[in-house]
Write a structure and sequence with these properties.
Elements (H helix, E strand, L loop, with lengths): L5 E3 L2 E3 L1 H9 L13 H10 L5 H6 L1 E8 L2 E8 L11 E5 L9 H12 L3 E5 L21 H12 L6 E6 L1 H13 L7 E7 L5 H8 L5 H21 L15 H13 L4 H8 L12 E6 L13 H4 L4 E6 L19 H18 L1
Parallel strand pairs: 5-6, 5-7, 7-8, 8-9, 9-10
Antiparallel strand pairs: 1-2, 3-4, 4-6
Helix pairs in contact: 1-12, 4-12, 9-10
Length: 356
């Protein structure tokens, strides 16, 4: 059953109420040495991890998502269990990330320890796959995730798929849920997003602040390098010469991302691709984790009625945590990665409700 309403015949419970009852008693308490949001953001990304299960169980898999596009993944299947026996986490990484991003490996490790199947999916052209598609990825691109989800149900027999998106792909995951509305495939059970960029224009403005120059520079350098590789592979489609004039993500989106995706401009792309515009249509049980002090993805849009008044959406908005940081004061859950543990709790809670 889809968990549009939970509970007995005498007392229906919304997904939001059900999830907050089970997740809300674990507030985020930051490491006192890491109050600064930039420390949370940077250290959350670079601190080393131990992921022995993820290291030894992954198998590469490719998905044909359209005639001219293949996306790649690393699949982790629980030994001796079919995709129908336990939940499957479909993990989507953020801008310029890959299946090897720290949080992707960390969530895979936690999912495997929780007894879940896990699929780490490379966003189109990421993870060294520029040659597998002539297209670029963007924040509104749900086509690939939708195709992968369909194949998991039709070919693999998966019965409980949970989509987890981080940062830019948090927006993708939420848009996917809104596109499904009340008609999601029966094997899709829930959606979660960590630090999602639900208002792309607000995020573009925020990262252009002087305090965020390091993040902007890193993203722009990576985007430029990727576009040069794409131009070498598809010279009839991409011209790398304008890259010399580009200094911001917004300028890159204006010159390349919006054009490649068929938007009229970066402004048009930001408006039409933002999950905030369509979040009211979400009907799948959904968890959103965000920090008020996120340096470059504002939390303010999440206080809009499309999110706060949607009974399918549970919001965990911490005062601190930075961007995809959430390094906690003490490792009560086994390590300090608070947000990742809440994702596992989210899947456990919905899986328990489905099977009772």
């Amino acid at each position: 059953m889809h968990l549009g309403a939970l509970g007995t015949a005498t007392r229906a419970v919304t997904p939001r109420a059900y999830l907050l009852e089970r997740l809300g008693d674990c507030p985020f308490v930051p490491d006192p040495r890491l109050i600064n949001p930039h420390l949370q953001t940077i250290l959350g990304s670079v601190l080393p991890r131990r992921t022995p299960l993820a290291d030894r169980t992954g198998h590469p898999r490719a998905f044909q998502t359209r005639p001219d596009t293949v996306v790649t993944s690393v699949c982790h299947w629980q030994a001796g269990r079919s995709p129908a026996d336990c939940p499957t986490l479909l993990l989507l990484h953020g801008m310029e990330g890959s299946v090897e991003s720290s949080y992707m490996r960390g969530m895979a490790e936690k999912g495997l320890r929780a007894g879940f199947h896990v699929i780490r999916l490379n966003t189109r052209t990421c993870g060294g796959t520029e040659h597998l598609s002539p297209h670029l990825y963007n924040a509104g691109l749900t086509e690939d995730a939708r195709a992968v989800i369909a194949e998991l149900g039709e070919r693999d027999g998966a019965t409980d798929v949970y989509v987890v998106g981080v940062s830019l792909s948090g927006n993708v995951a939420l848009r996917l849920a809104s596109e499904y509305g009340g008609g999601a495939p029966r094997h899709v059970r829930g959606v979660a997003a960590i630090s999602p960029s639900v208002d792309l224009m607000a995020s573009a403005k925020a990262i252009e602040r002087r305090a965020n120059w390091l993040y902007q520079r890193r993203f722009v350098q990576s985007l430029k390098a990727r576009l040069r590789r794409k131009a070498a592979l598809f010279p009839d489609r991409y011209d790398a010469r304008p890259l010399t004039r580009i200094r911001t993500i917004r300028e890159f989106d204006e010159a390349y991302t919006a054009v490649a995706a068929g938007y009229a401009s970066a402004e048009d792309y930001y408006h039409r691709a933002s999950a905030a515009r369509v979040a009211a249509e979400i009907r799948l049980p959904t968890l959103i984790i965000h920090a008020q002090d996120d340096p470059f993805i504002p939390a303010a849009p999440l206080y809009e009625p499309a999110f706060t008044e949607n009974p399918s959406i549970a919001l965990l908005i911490a005062e601190r945590g930075g961007h995809v940081g959430f390094l906690a004061a003490r490792p009560a859950d086994g390590d300090r990665r608070w947000a990742e543990h809440r994702i596992m709790d989210f899947v456990r809670a919905l899986n328990a409700a489905r099977r009772r």
